Amino acid sequence: MAVPISQMWTVATYVLKKRLSGNHRYPLVLMLEPLFRCNLACAGCGKVQYPPHILKKQLTPEECFAAVEECGAPMVSIPGGEPLLHPQIVEIVNGLIARKKYIYLCTNALELKRRLPEFTPSKYLTFSVHLDGDREHHDFSVCREGGYDLAVEGIKEAVKRGFRVTTNATFFDGTDPNNVRGFFDDVMAMGVEGIVLSPGYSYENAPDQNRFLGRARVRRLFRAILSNRKPTWKFNMSPLFLEFLMGDRKYECTPWGSPAYNIFGWQRPCYLLQDGYAESFKELLETTRWEEYGVASGNPKCANCMVSCGYEPTAVIDGFGSLKGIWGMIRGTFSMYKDEHALRLLSEPAPHGPATLIQIEKPAQVFEETNA
Amino acid sequence: MTAEVLKYTLEQVEALELAPGTEHQKLEGWIPEFASDEDIRQALEKAFDYRGDVTLTLKSGEKIEAFIFNRRTGATLADSYVQYFTPKAPEKRKISYAEIARLEFTGKDRAAGKHWEDWVKAYNEKKASGEKYALHPESLE
Fold this sequence. Notes:
By secondary structure, chain A is of the alpha/beta class. Chain A has helices at residues 5-20, 52-55, 61-71, 89-98, 112-115, 135-141, 147-160, 177-189, 215-226, 239-245, 281-287, 308-320, 323-334, 340-346, and strands at residues 29-32, 75-78, 102-107, 125-130, 164-171, 194-199, 260-262, 265-269, 274-278. By secondary structure, chain B is an alpha+beta fold. Chain B is built from three helices and five strands; from the N terminus they run ααβββββα. Chain B has helices at residues 10-14, 37-49, 116-129; strands at residues 54-58, 63-72, 81-85, 93-96, 100-104. A five-stranded antiparallel sheet of chain B has the order 4-3-2-1-5.
């Protein structure tokens, strides 16, 4: 079990209180983006393409605390941009720990080893390190040779100092499931608490517009990756969300489950789509036309999305919302998901081996879908 | 989401193998014609999506260099506004559509010109030559 009991208890009681109070639209994780500046230029990222004067702006610690208190979510994810470039990130993190928020500080870890002495280990603080695969795949994905080695150095040092650490991987078309499974072995051997993963979202402003997975291919890829698990693998995610990625569950998006706050305000409707901003969290909840988003709406911008920020809240609410859900989570936590068909998928030729990683115009091998 | 956007059916969505990417519209340098209220609305919608600065000329004659990050559309131009940051001022500002006389896409489009194929080509060349490869963020100065 990767998520500590205290954190699960906090989230479970929070969900229960909301349900008992009749509140059906509440946040679970605040996506707090204190800045958009980054020290990488990843081809799959559509978050950081702004004029310099916007990239120089950042939220103050006071603005961060006000957003966290207004939102009320028990967990706060700090993505960006690269949060470690924020000059007051330590003050922000310490302020959130004082407020007993479970923090996931999402970092590419280029600066992590150097900055670690400024932070204090806490059950409330997790470094969620962006690592997309083995050395070659990660460096190619983040468009920087040497990125993997720096990240791994940061991970190992953080683990040594007693911090909670997870890795966070995003997968695009061309991902080799065998390679990913080997990568899981590698990161668990580094001593991390668990793995976080998600298919990539088709950002309109990302340089790479050719490798965003559609839903059918997402299900086949994740069935191949996540079936027949090894006992050493731990996932810092809802097991029900992983079953959704594998095609075993049908979920709708819960866009208000992971609201995003940044220098522009409260982002409508979610962390990924930018359809405008609200001045307050209350305004976001009350004035966003939620029926225009999610797969059921038919909105093309939501059509391929199976990303964790929209669907993991659905899975968490489902999991803590009934005895059946709780049983599903227990079963999912300990199951190895034995699946003969998925094993056969793994013996098929890789969609792209590392040597052909760059042949993006060649269509990827299509796995036979098993359960969607 | 606007009404004229083609919607997917659930069956189509679930069967998607590859998600279609977005064809990037070249807006840098564009000066839209403001012949009607609808022209103004459409142009400001594009300015909201644009990842570069624009120049707004107000009916008062004042010129504003702005990064537009939000828009709110009402029944009339007077009820509609854009929110923006300027390169010099720290605070968010807003201006009604009715006060805007001209819009120019003057700033560099920060989402344009970064093509995947260029990165792949650079990666190939660097690998072949044994040099270290990297894409670096643009300078903030």
